[in-house]
Specification:
Membrane topology: Multi-pass membrane protein
InterPro entries: DUF92_TMEM19 (IPR002794)
Strand content: 5-15%
Low-confidence stretches: none
Largest sheet: 3 strands, antiparallel
Strand order of the largest sheet: 4-3-7
Structural class: mainly alpha
Shape: globular
Oligomer: single chain
Transmembrane segments: 27-60, 83-102, 152-174, 186-207, 242-263
Subcellular location: Membrane
Distance between the termini: 33 Å
Order of helices and strands: HHHHHEEHHEEEEEH
Organism: Clostridium hominis
Length: 264
């Protein structure tokens, strides 16, 4: 019965997202599988966090959509998440709930919350930071860079990252209290989820500017994350060709989630 409930809810949410063009076909199928497994292995709390992440990030991505059109020349992928992007944002959380099922150690359930907090923090920073009217600078050099380029930070993006992480932290806390009752360590856990989720966005920016592949589209002179323009390869100017934004998302998420497991 539990798996049927998880599948039904996951199917409904994924189909709505597909119809709203937040997911493509492969992303929809992967989201159904991911959601169902998280519900069965982890229960209602990580499943609710997944829904909060996915619904809030989908809504956020639609804000300022007209202003974001010029980012198509920079970003490798469009608004519709594919299966790799779904895995990049939810795969580490799935591993956490699997470890919870194997070990019965509740720290892995909290680790899944940290993972979703990192994903939400990074998504909110990326989607809202590009709308900033202030300057965007490289997190490493402090020099001004074009909005939307990985590794760039702005005041609006930074505040959005913190807010995105806080939303997941509060969602975990409320879900935990409703489901299991108040715990004396709940405030400590809330702060850890918020801080490590926010750190995930920072780590993502650092990796984005240091190891993610950045290219020059020699037909336009634009810096881009796209490896090719049509049938022509763009020239690599920094980072590694095999590391794209999806890989950076997975690595940053894994790093902060592992930090939580090690320190708790």
């Amino acid at each position: 019965m539990k798996i049927i409930i998880g599948i039904i809810i996951s199917v409904i949410i994924a189909i709505i997202a597909y119809n709203k063009k937040s997911l493509n076909r492969s992303g929809m199928i992967t989201a159904i599988l991911l959601g169902s497994l998280i519900f069965v292995l982890g229960g209602i709390i990580p499943f609710m966090l997944m829904l909060v992440f996915f619904i809030s990030s989908s809504i956020i991505s639609k804000i300022g959509k007209i202003k974001k059109r010029n980012l198509d020349k920079i970003h490798e992928k469009g608004d519709e998440r594919d299966f790799i992007q779904v895995i990049a944002n939810g795969g580490i959380a799935l591993i956490c709930v699997l470890l919870f099922q194997i070990t019965k150690d509740p720290k892995f359930l909290i680790a899944s919350a940290v993972s979703f907090a990192a994903s939400n923090s990074d998504t909110w920073a990326s989607e809202l930071g590009v709308l900033s009217k202030g300057k965007t600078i490289s997190i490493i050099t402090g020099k001004r860079i074009e909005k939307g380029v990985s590794g760039g930070v702005s005041l609006l993006g930074t505040l959005s990252a913190l807010l995105g992480s806080t939303v997941i932290g509060l969602s975990y806390t409320i879900s935990y209290i409703i489901t299991l009752g108040y715990d004396k360590n709940i405030i400590k856990i809330l702060l850890l989820i918020i801080l490590l989720g926010f750190l995930g966005s920072i780590v993502d920016s650092v990796l984005g500017v240091t190891i993610q592949g950045h290219y020059i589209d020699e037909s336009s002179g634009d810096v881009t994350e796209k490896k090719v323009n049509g049938d022509r390869k763009n020239r690599l100017i920094s980072g590694y060709r095999f590391i794209n934004n999806d890989m950076v998302n997975i690595l940053s998420n894994l790093i902060v989630t592992a930090i939580f497991v090690l320190i708790l």
